[in-house]
Amino acid sequence: MINTITIDKARKSKIAEVDFNNIPFGRIFSDHMFITEYEKGEWKNPRIIPFQNLNTHPAISALHYGQSIFEGLKAYKNLNGVPVLFRPEKNIDRMNKSAERMAMPEIPKDLFNKGLEELIKLDHEWIPTLDGSSLYIRPFMFATDEYVGIKPSDKYTFIIFTCPVGPYYSAPVKVKVADKYVRAIPGGVGTAKVAGNYAATMKGVQEARQEGYDQILWMDGFEFKYIHEIGTMNVFFQIGDKVITPGLDEGTILEGITRDSVITLLKSEGYHVEERKVEIKEIIQAHENGTLKDVFGTGTAATISQISHMGYKGKELELRAPEKRELSNYLQKLMNDIKLGRVEDKFNWLHAIPINAEINATEE
Predict the structure, then answer these.
(1) Which among 158, 261, 281, 301 counts the fewest CB atoms within 10 Å?
(2) CA distances from 261 to 244, 256, 308, 327, 346 (A)
(3) Confidence band (pLDDT; 50, 70, 90) for 215?
(4) DSSP secondary structure code for residue 49 in this structure
(5) Residue 256: which of 283, 294, 296, 226 has the closest Cα?
(6) Three-state SS string across 263-318, please?
(7) Closest by CA position to 306, among listed 323, 290, 291, 289
């Protein structure tokens, strides 16, 4: 059971100011946000309020010691105009795993679900319907102790806000194979969705972009020999009749929800999928002998994104033309068709949110 979620509606919606035919990713925000605070061992005062700036103390722990985690998921409208979420239970589970790793309290599933559903009901008109667009949903939690000292915080704030978005990548992605910086090592926080993970990649990505690349293909932190993931995506390789992706055993790779969905779809279609260590030399050799058929990334923001080039030790590998990529093009279409209700959701991944009912802000 959760407490009543109070709702304070915005006096005037900003939706009329938005050009839904031209939506930049992550720059436009919907009318409302869900917020609740943790103190003395419990979550309190869950509420939906107009989207607004936060008033924070300069000494909160998140700003100084990095106790901050987040998630990302999307809402779509199916063919009947009903808002649907894609596997939201996986986001709740992963967020709580991140919280445990960062010595933060878990978010009760009923609180997460109820806050998210009421928020989407209230702002469902913000869900864009143009192909490739969606309503991006950002749940996040951060430490709020007003204390300059290194210890797990006693107080936290949890917020969900949403923003209409277009495609994260508008074209196939060029990646540089890491040879200098490291994203994660065994025993670290690579498998958690922690703000600091992304901060640690900024310098490397900045340098890669100066060289004409979009992202980095991160490698292991010891030999720069084994592939981990791309900065915004997990990565897949099709070599001959096999589909290969780095395994999760070492705890250095984010347990992607799109990754898991793609593996499930591939196996259901009879593909041979291997989750294991992937050596960069294996990929280079497959490219040289012509057996590398496809390379693509998977992620909530990016969905399925083809990799067009790989920069490795001063050389650039140009991969198969996008239109010749049967696998990634098939997966891209299939994932979109499932989310929009064009094909059967045989794995029960979609969670519909009825919007014709009056908003009910109390959990009985």
Answers:
(1) 281
(2) 14, 9, 23, 14, 12
(3) very high
(4) E
(5) 296
(6) HHHHHHCCCEEEEECCEHHHHHHHHHCCCEEEEEEEECCCEEEEEEEEEECCEEEE
(7) 323
